[in-house]
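agent> call fold_tool(seq_1)
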Amino acid sequence: MEIRSTTDEDFGVFVDTLHAAFGRFAETPVDGGGLWWSALEPERCLLATTAEGKPVGTAGAYPFELTLPGGILAPAAGVSAVGVLPSHRRRGVLTAMMRHQLAGLRDRGEFLSVLLASEATIYGRFGYGPATYTARLTVARHQAALVAPRAGVAAGAPAAGSIEVLRGAECGEVLEEVYDRYRRAQPGALSRPRRWWALRAGQPPIAPAPRYVAVHRDADGVPDGYVSYAIAEPDTLRVDEVIATEDAVFTALARFVLGHDLVSRVEFKHVPPGHPLRWQLADFRAGEVSRDTDWLWVRLLDVPRALSARGWFTDGELVLDVDDPFLGEHGRYLLTVRDGKADCVPTDREPDLSLDVRDLGSLYLGGTAPSTLVRAGHVRAHRPGAATLADALFRSDLAPHCLHWF
């Protein structure tokens, strides 16, 4: 078997092989693009072929920026378009592609890789761990009243400004600008490169599927939030995403869709853990949580570089013994945090925690507490208090959340 990068000339073979792996047929192009895979870059895609030259597997990687705790932007490879023909599964094709891809990412100087896992049992063995989580919140329309904030409480106060309803095709530049401001402040969020918007790739509101967009503008008329939505049968208003730079703007947009006529329920597709919206409902039980699931998975390719890159909010020292069975690597590192910055170097000191690189990926953005993985039997704490210190060190300033699909 050979694994090689694709070229512009054989990118069509890559696309056809990818669709065949999932038993699907390629969509018919629409004016201005709009194909979910159209933002892939051939030079970052891999094609696996047999000795006879038959294509049997694919893997791609988008160039993204990932927002780390502390508002730090870091390059991250977004792995996607991974598939193996049903006739060649369980023959080591996927493992070979993943090994080839990780080596290539390291050669590019990248230290983080992320993906959305089609199945939760696949990518842990390649060193990826779930790092952000999301849920669907469905609110019954007749129970959708929001409570006003208590007197003297600034949080939850109505946002000054206005809301304008537009069609998605009319406001691409506004959406791009507002999303970019939002993702720079939200840990776990990914960039949406200009290429995505230009090619209308991905899912709504980027993709050309018909959507209404309610754009919120502040008192000066500057866009600072939006909600993308459509009415679906039966009488359900489905929200793709709510993007807001402030909680008050999110509340204003939520109030807007919850007040929509001629629907019996409103479904918010992506609500981050611990979001206050459910607590703002006058009837707490009016909000039904479902599809509480993982979203973004993280893989560290260079442990010291990755840990030194993010922001930190508690001072302390921790010795991490990290095993990477897929790459056949093992390292012990002294993590020292002072004044929001970390230094991470190899050490011979006795470990505080022993863990797999996939579990370190889950901890990395602060969305999973180390003590949870200790209790689950994933991470071993070697001394009393180690898990408590790790919880304090790895926490994030905001709960990490990712909306972007890729």
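agent> call fold_tool(seq_2)
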Amino acid sequence: MDFFTNQNILFYISAYLIGSIPFGLILAKFFAGVDVKAAGSGSIGATNVLRVVKETNPSLAKKLGAATVILDALKGTLVLLLAMSMGASDSTLWGIAVLSVLGHCYSIYLGLEGGKGVATGLGVYIALIPIPTIIGAVVWIICAKVLKISSLSSLLGLTAVIVVASFLNDGLNVGSNIPMYIIAFIIYYKHIPNIIRVIKGEEKKVV
């Protein structure tokens, strides 16, 4: 079978390439004229977009931060929904999910640099394990309101997703929870500097 006409291969390539699109970087440059990779934490995610743009335009910062979250989530969800509509297998769907998060975290357009993967992870999880993801999102929101530390709140929400999904799902219809754990591991790994700062009490709050 020809490599580039294999439906699964096309889905995998699309997932990675679309996942790699740095929406936060693009939005901040286009609408606010700032380079988020050269300011703040250097991340292309919504938190850094909010923090950097807020320095010059607080009202625009909230809009761009929200838009970044939505677009980063959708770039994982949309490929999955297309694959679902075309009858892709569960194993293919989880392959798409992993590659979408990898694309965001290690973008081919940014020399294999990227964001932390939280929003894109949320986008793929909501399509594949909706109930645990909704619970995790609630935990995320509550922790964000109380703790006001974006990274810690995100990781606590992610942990809630994994714990709930581990109890509710038996092998995710692919015989194993490993794809779900791989996505979580990528996100945890990208947050190692944040975790170290949290332990030291140096992680900045979002105010």
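agent> summarizing second result for user.
Residues 3-200 form one domain. The CA atoms of residues 103 and 113 lie 9 Å apart.
agent> awaiting next instruction.
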